[in-house]
Every structure is written in structure tokens, then in C-alpha cells.
């Protein structure tokens, strides 16, 4: 037999019966707003300095950028995409979309994205050649 549900108000709902709080207040109270990104702040001005030199200069700078421990943080296309995406979002939030540096960084992001897509496709072809063979076999039909 299924027990019946008690529909009497609980003490918590009785205590809050007369107050109404909006969702923004309730969510804002539980979720902290993100603060400044230390990773982005460390590289922000350096990227802006390299942007006038062009996409290749920015990519080369990212490939060689090391943190305090000497670890290369952005040597992969995926890492480069991540920091460039953060950089573009930060510039957009500051209203800097009209700057020439924004265009260069946007082009650099597109280049890193294309490189990453090519690498992933190559890796997929290398590690699953049977799928490629099936496609070639079915292409004649």
C-alpha cells in the first residue's frame, strides 16, 4: 500500500509564507560571481602588444608562453583556442570589439580552431581506419 502524502505546510514554508524573493536574489546568494581570471590577466597586455604583428606572431608567442614554473601553457591548438576565447570574451565585455587587435585575435582563434579540427580528423583517421575503409567501400554504390 502506498502511504499518503502529508499536505500540511512545513515549518520552513510557514516561516517564509509572507515573503517573496525573486529568483535572481535566491540564485545570486548561492552562486558566487566569477572574479577576474588570473590566467587571463597575466597574458592580456602581452597578447595585445603582439596583435599588431599579426596572427603568426600571436600564435608563436602563445606556443612559447611559459608560466613561473617554466611549463608551456599554450603549446597545443586546444590550449591556444581556450585562452584566445577568454581574451575575445574579455575584450567584448569591455566594449573593445572595434579595435584592430580584436580582429587579429579573432583571426588567430579561427586559425587555431581550424588547426585543431584538422588534427582531430587526422587522429580519427589514424585510430579508426576501418571506418574509413567502410566509407571507401560504400562510395562506389
TrEMBL record:
Location of region: Disordered: 1-20
Origin: domain of life: Bacteria
Skewed-composition ranges (Polar residues): 10-19
Protein name as annotated: DUF5610 domain-containing protein
Source organism per UniProt: Pseudomonas typographi
Amino acid at each position: 500500500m502506498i502511504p499518503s502524502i502529508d499536505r500540511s505546510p512545513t515549518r520552513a514554508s510557514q516561516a517564509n509564507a509572507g515573503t517573496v524573493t525573486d529568483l535572481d536574489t535566491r540564485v545570486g546568494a548561492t552562486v558566487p560571481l566569477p572574479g577576474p581570471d588570473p590566467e587571463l590577466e597575466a597574458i592580456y597586455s602581452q597578447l595585445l602588444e603582439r596583435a599588431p604583428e599579426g596572427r603568426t606572431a600571436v600564435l608563436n608567442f602563445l606556443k612559447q608562453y611559459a608560466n613561473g614554473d617554466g611549463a608551456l601553457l599554450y603549446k597545443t591548438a586546444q590550449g591556444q583556442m581556450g585562452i584566445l576565447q577568454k581574451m575575445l570574451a574579455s575584450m567584448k565585455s569591455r566594449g573593445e570589439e572595434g579595435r584592430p587587435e580584436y580582429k587579429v585575435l579573432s583571426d588567430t582563434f579561427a586559425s587555431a580552431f581550424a588547426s585543431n579540427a584538422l588534427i582531430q580528423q587526422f587522429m580519427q583517421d589514424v585510430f579508426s581506419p576501418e571506418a574509413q575503409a567502410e566509407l571507401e567501400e560504400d562510395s562506389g554504390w
